[in-house]
Write a structure and sequence with these properties.
Layout (H helix, E strand, L loop, with lengths): L4 E5 L10 H8 L7 E5 L5 H8 L5 E4 L16 H6 L4 E4 L2 H6 L4 H13 L3 E6 L3 H5 L3 H12 L10 E4 L13 H19 L1 H6 L2 E4 L7 H4 L7 E4 L6 H13 L1
Parallel strand pairs: 1-2, 1-8, 2-3, 3-4, 4-5, 5-6, 6-7, 7-8
Helix pairs in contact: 1-11, 5-7, 7-8
The protein binds 1,3-dihydroxyacetonephosphate.
Length: 249
Amino acid sequence: MRRKIAAGNWKMNGTGAALSELDALAQALPPNPPSVVICPPAPLLYRACEVVAGKGIDIGAQDCHMQSSGAHTGDISAAMIADTGAIYTIVGHSERRAAHEETNAMVRDKAKAAWAAGLTPILCIGEALEDREADNTLNIIGGQLAGSLPSDVSAENTVIAYEPIWAIGTGKVPTLAQIIEVHDFIRERLIARFGQDIGNAIPLLYGGSVKPDNAATIFKAENVDGALVGGASLKAGDFAPIIAALAAC
Ligand code: 13P
């Protein structure tokens, strides 16, 4: 049985007032909930950790620097994130790959930096619309996996999120068959590279326009172990039913 994870990426949304959503979410968790992770903006990490302490919600960052310290104005190291009480960090989100020109090699180094600080990276991969339309999705995904996943992965220290770029924030969701095809492919690649035990145990999340009304369908896929949710994670009233759908499957 793989770990199920419902992760929320708040992106650049929310100030201190948004922390009340964490309290509301804690109160709305179903019995036997999956792992629940919220990744708020960095200035809220410490306070978010205080709010959720002992309430069944973990906190993660949205990015970390690959170096442990130094002259990197505006950047945040993995150790600084861990110091807030957060235990996860997203790395390689497509918005950072695009807007900050993050390469597979940089994402790989960020994952290693996260491990060195005791954080679990949620490592994102996903194809652009032109890749999908050119029938090149699996090539792109295979290349991103090979290039951005370090070799000393374990089932406990890494989570992978498949987020097709064209599905992020658009309301467009791949068909269940398309999600199954990519997730099964990722699972095969993980097993081929890391062996059955590790390859079978790494949690794979789907991300891209996951909403309360489509979550249960997406979670039917055998190799979908949870979701990385953007917009619908901002309000407890939207995220709680997604978590409940994961708990029920
Ligand atoms: P949406 O759920 O808003 O499409 O965002 C997905 C995402 O990018 C999560 O990291």
